[in-house]
């Protein structure tokens, strides 16, 4: 049950989307995005399923490859179908169980609205037990870089206790990693891996906070062998 996170490397998009931009909604040339996506499929030798992300908590259960559903999480129990979540500061959260996988798009809004709990529920309905789940919180903006107004920090921390943080310069911030980890732990998930890579600091990753107009990298999960 492999998981993978892409980067800018290996793509054909021109600046400001330079590299392997997988987002077809950010203003990049359609032809470049199509080439980038084909390269990913060629590398994996499996179809990649995207979604139309809206910063919500909707979960789509997939049994075959098809048009991207409007959702912020995907789950499947079908081998050989790669689930993709696109990000550029939000956290890609990747779920693995013996016979089920899922991905979730968890930024500030999604985390607070309950996308993690919704994804866990969908995985359970497909037969996954929470104590057998392995969850990876992929690269996202770190607390030291995610500055927000004080009132927003308080609002989010009320919804997601433990997410309040402080930037490196002492201003109010949100800690996506800590908030998501606490949500997972409170739900009974114990096997949690957290990437230390910060999108705002790592030039190999796309970052809306750092760049504004930019591309999207992806977190991927699937049932089956690693190509």
TrEMBL record:
It catalyses: adenosine + H2O + H(+) = inosine + NH4(+); S-methyl-5'-thioadenosine + phosphate = 5-(methylsulfanyl)-alpha-D-ribose 1-phosphate + adenine; adenosine + phosphate = alpha-D-ribose 1-phosphate + adenine; inosine + phosphate = alpha-D-ribose 1-phosphate + hypoxanthine. One of its GO terms (molecular function) is S-methyl-5-thioadenosine phosphorylase activity. InterPro entries: Cu_polyphenol_OxRdtase, Cu_polyphenol_OxRdtase_sf, Cytotoxic_necrot_fac-like_cat. PANTHER family: PURINE NUCLEOSIDE PHOSPHORYLASE LACC1 (PTHR30616:SF2), UNCHARACTERIZED PROTEIN YFIH (PTHR30616). Belongs to the purine nucleoside phosphorylase YfiH/LACC1 family. NCBIfam families: peptidoglycan editing factor PgeF. Purine nucleoside enzyme that catalyzes the phosphorolysis of adenosine and inosine nucleosides, yielding D-ribose 1-phosphate and the respective free bases, adenine and hypoxanthine. Also catalyzes the phosphorolysis of S-methyl-5'-thioadenosine into adenine and S-methyl-5-thio-alpha-D-ribose 1-phosphate. Also has adenosine deaminase activity. This is Purine nucleoside phosphorylase.
């Amino acid at each position: 049950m492999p998981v993978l996170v892409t980067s800018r490397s290996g793509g054909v998009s021109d600046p400001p989307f330079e590299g392997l931009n997988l987002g077809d909604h950010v203003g990049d040339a359609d032809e470049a995005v199509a080439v980038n996506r084909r390269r990913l499929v060629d590398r994996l030798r499996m179809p990649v399923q995207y979604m139309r992300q809206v910063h919500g908590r909707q979960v789509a259960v997939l049994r075959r490859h098809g048009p991207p559903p409007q959702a912020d999480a995907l789950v499947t129990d079908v081998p050989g179908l790669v689930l993709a979540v696109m990000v550029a500061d939000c956290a890609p959260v990747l779920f693995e169980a013996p016979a089920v996988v899922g991905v979730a798009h968890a930024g500030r809004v999604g985390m607070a609205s309950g996308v993690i709990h919704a994804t866990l529920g969908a995985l359970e309905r497909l037969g996954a037990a929470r104590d057998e789940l392995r969850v990876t919180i992929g690269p996202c903006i770190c607390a030291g870089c995610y500055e927000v107004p004080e009132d927003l920090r308080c609002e989010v921390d009320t919804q997601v206790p433990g997410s309040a943080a402080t930037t490196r310069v002492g201003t109010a911030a949100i800690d996506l990693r800590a908030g998501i980890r606490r949500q997972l732990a409170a739900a009974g998930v114990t096997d949690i891996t957290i990437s230390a890579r910060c999108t705002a600091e790592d030039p190999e990753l796309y970052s809306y906070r750092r760049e504004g107009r930019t591309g999207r990298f992806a977190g991927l999960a699937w049932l089956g062998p690693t190509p």
